[in-house]
Design a protein that fits this description.
This protein is of the alpha+beta class. The protein has three helices and three strands; from the N terminus they run H-E-H-E-H-E.
Length: 65
């Protein structure tokens, strides 16, 4: 966490796997992260809520720090 705080408290998230065949709740979590298409990247504020969404869909996204 100290590394994220030094970088302005943000985390980059990339959608690396398609949503086809995934659970509906997981698709909603990806949408809540602001990711729509494959290889979309969003820089989000590092918070427990965002980390929880990332952990839920860890098999669909990659965290780039």
């Amino acid at each position: 966490m100290a590394k994220n705080e030094a970088a302005g408290g943000t985390v980059k998230v990339r959608l690396v796997k398609g949503l086809r065949g995934s659970q509906a709740k997981h698709r909603l979590s990806v949408k809540a992260l602001g990711l729509n298409k494959l290889n979309d990247v969003r820089e989000l504020k590092d918070s427990p809520q965002v980390r929880g969404l990332i952990n839920k869909v860890h098999y669909l996204v990659r965290v780039e720090e």
